[in-house]
Every structure is written in structure tokens, then in C-alpha cells.
Amino acid sequence: MARPRTIDREHVLDCVEQLVHREGVAALTLEAVAREAGITKGGLQYRFGSKDDLMTALIDRWLAAFDASVARHIGPDAGIIDRARAYVLTVSQIDDTTQVRMVGMLVTLLQSPKYLQKIRAWYAGWFNGCDPDCREARQARTAIFAAEGAFFLRSLGFMEMDPGWWKTAFADFQQLILSDPCTP
């Protein structure tokens, strides 16, 4: 009796990204993903269920990787200021290839209300538990929005930023977050 072949989840998700990057989202079918990953369509469906489940797994992987990167820069009980600093630092360190891959997939995925809601909930989580009107929350929000804006402007090709400009811009974003508490 043959031993059942194990389907490597991460390999399949890598294949999804490669397929979309190479051929566009229109090429994203279960058949194409299975072929790209070297597995059967039935095996793919057994592991992921549906195309929606596959896309959800991909989004979850991106968010978990980003969150893990942020967590490496802060402690478990970090406040909004430290979390925002780590967020800005993490965005500044995303390499060009990853930027293009992520933005291309996100723009495509966000056309679905299901995926858009998942991303919205993730962003909202960055500000849970803090008073949105306090000075620290406003500073954190401004720095995070600035970092996201630069990320998308560069990744979508709306602005060219050489590495020096990129580094300087993110240093400026960090300066938006003051270390001393201020009054509004």
C-alpha cells in the first residue's frame, strides 16, 4: 500500500503567488494551482477546500508574517507608540520583490467583500484598546498611514523612490511618533 503524499501548505501558497505574478489573477483556478504545485486538484481541494479557502490562507499567511516581523521588534505588552514604531520599521524593510507581489495580490483580492473585510479587521486591530482621540493614538495612526501610503505609492509605481529616499522617508515617519506624552 502506498503511503499518502503530504501536501506542503506553504509550497502551494508559494505556487499561488508565482502563478498570479506570472499570469495574472485570471489564471488563478484550482486546476492551475494544482498543476503549478505538482499535485492533483483533488489533493488541493482536500487540503484547502475551495479557491476562497486558498485565498484566505494566503491572506492569513501574509498577515501572520507581518505580525511576526512586528513582534520581533517589541515586547508582548507594547503600547500603541511602540507598536506603531515597529509597524513603520517593518514596512520600511519589505523588499521590492515582496512589495510588488503583495500589492498585486492585495489589489486583486480586495475586490471581494469577504477579503476586504478580513483586511479591514486586521487594520482595525492595530488600534483596538486605545482612545482614538489621545495624542499617542493620533501620532501612531499618522505614522502608520504615512508608511502605508509610501508603501502603496512605491509598490504601485505611482512614485519612484530610490533606497536613500525610502530610508529617509521612513525615518521621518518614525519622527512623527514622539516619545514624550503631549497634550492635544
UniProtKB/TrEMBL annotation:
Signal peptide: none annotated. Residues 6-66 form the HTH tetR-type domain. One of its GO terms (molecular function) is DNA binding. Residues 29-48 bind DNA. It comes from the Bacteria. The keyword Transcription regulation applies. This is TetR family transcriptional regulator. Gene3D superfamilies: Tetracycline Repressor, domain 2. Keywords: DNA-binding, Transcription, Transcription regulation. Pfam families: TetR_C_28, TetR_N. The lineage of its organism: Bacteria, Pseudomonadati, Pseudomonadota, Alphaproteobacteria, Acetobacterales. InterPro entries: Homeodomain-like_sf, HTH_TetR, TetR_CgmR_C.
